[in-house]
Amino acid sequence: MDRILFKNGALLDPLQGALQPGHDVLVEGDTIKAVSQQPIEANDARVIDLKGKTIMPGLIDLHAHMIATQFDLPGQVRMPNVFVTLKTLPIMRGILRRGFTTVRDAGGAGLALKQSVEMGLAQGPRLFIAGRALSQTGGHGDVRGRSDFIASDAPCNCCVRVGALSRVVDGVDALRRAVREELQMGADQIKIMASGGVASPTDPVGALGYSEDEIRAVVAEARGRGTYVMAHAYTPESMQRAVRCGVRTIEHGNLIDGPTAALMADHEAYAVPTLVAYEALHLEGVKFGLPPESAAKIDIVRESGLKSLEIFKRAGVKMGFGTDLLGPSHRMQSDEFAIRAQVLSPAEIIGSATTIGAEILGMTGKLGRLVPGAFADVLVVDGDPLGDLGCLGGQGEHIPLVMKGGCIEFNELEEAGTRPA
User: Fold this and answer.
1) Candidates 3.20.20.140, 3.40.50.880, 3.30.1540.10, 3.30.230.10; correct CATH number of 59-333?
2) Strand pairing report for 54-57 and 3-11
3) What is the pLDDT of residues 367-399, one digit of tens each?
4) How far is the C-alpha of 188 from the C-alpha of 182, rounded, in Å?
5) What does the DSSP assignment read for 247-300?
6) Could you give the CA distance from residue 265 to residue 187 in angstroms, rounded to a whole number?
7) Are strands 378-381 and 54-57 parallel, antiparallel or unpaired?
8) 146-159: average pLDDT
9) Which of 126, 169, 270, 321 could form a disulfide with 178 if both were Cys (CB 3.0 to 4.6 A apart)?
10) H/E run at residue 280
């Protein structure tokens, strides 16, 4: 079994408020074997001398879309499957290079894509997939434009379109079946649309999504398979309905108010804000093909983003780290750190992208920290992220080494202290 020993690193443990200098970390196979402030002896290990650089756990993005290859999502549904798949590969590689070793895909990615990464056919983050998100007719996942008739070309289960992030399903019985189908096809969690959205053509942001009976049916089916439901929601009423019905994570949540945040805290529901998505849509959505009816809705949610962080924090709602970017804007993924830094501390933000992310995924002890028994997802960073989040920004320029599951995916340290033992 391959062993790698990182020596003389400044350990960033998200549960501690400062770096801990002089640490060794031993990786055995795909697992962290030992972490110590005392020298670790491992005569047969490959040794990487970090010379005081920061060593920290890989980052977790809880809301991303691997197959969102362009801003025009309705147009992507009609794109040939092979084109979508090939355009996805550099997106996944870029995400991993920026230090995000785990991603919860919030709609679109299927089991084959997840397995392709696991098998080494594609380079990318570890994936937790939702399959296709579930939307009611005319909801956030219904990509059909307005007409004088309801077109029959919505993404369906009998005509697989790799470019479809969602499927249209109405009614309790149909939803039960849809959830069972997505789980049968490999979904790790289920995604529903609980309110209107920005990128979809016919639903106002304030529109409610599924009825409470429908949401409860989805939650019951997910719980029956030992998993949970994540819900796209912007307005207080949509979030309240989802949380009361058992939804575990609220995605976006920009228009949250105090009473709704308190309800979420009481139900131990999580929030996954995605503020960088609205900056990207505002700055370059129209340029890269966002339909005009979608562009007109951006400012409704963009202007409330930072305020939502304050409300969630005040109520004690745990926040995960999400981005929700489309097409060429995936390069802005790490800008989420800088946006949140206007309200939250670096430690809080790093916690959202590590330990809280692991908690939401049900992977506490396996992801989000460098501790014995955890997956060996390791970043080496130039600088102290607890003091300056800028070293986690950009495209990984300050992250010379990225390891996922014990495999070194990127390494710019070879000429700076890597040697065999």
Assistant:
1) 3.20.20.140
2) parallel
3) 999 999 999 999 999 999 999 999 999 999 999
4) 9
5) --EEEE-TT--HHHHHHHHHTT-EEE--HHHHHHHHHHTTTTT--HHHHTTHHH
6) 27
7) antiparallel
8) 55
9) 169
10) helix 275-284
Bridge partners for 55 per DSSP: 11, 380
In this prediction the pTM is 0.94
List, by residue range, all CATH 2.30.40.10 domains of the chain: 3-58+366-420
For residues 412 and 342, what is the distance between their CA atoms, to the nearest angstrom? 31
Q: Is CATH 2.30.40.10 the classification given to domain 3-58+366-420? A: yes
- Alpha helix ranges (H) inside 51-171: 73-77, 81-97, 111-119
- 173-209 burial: b if 16+ Cβ within 10 Å, else e: eebbebbeebbeeebbbbbbbbbbbbbbbbbebebbb
Q: Which pairing describes strands 126-129 and 100-105: parallel, antiparallel, or unpaired?
A: parallel
Tell me the three state secondary structure of residue 135.
strand
Region(s) of the chain under CATH 3.20.20.140: 59-333
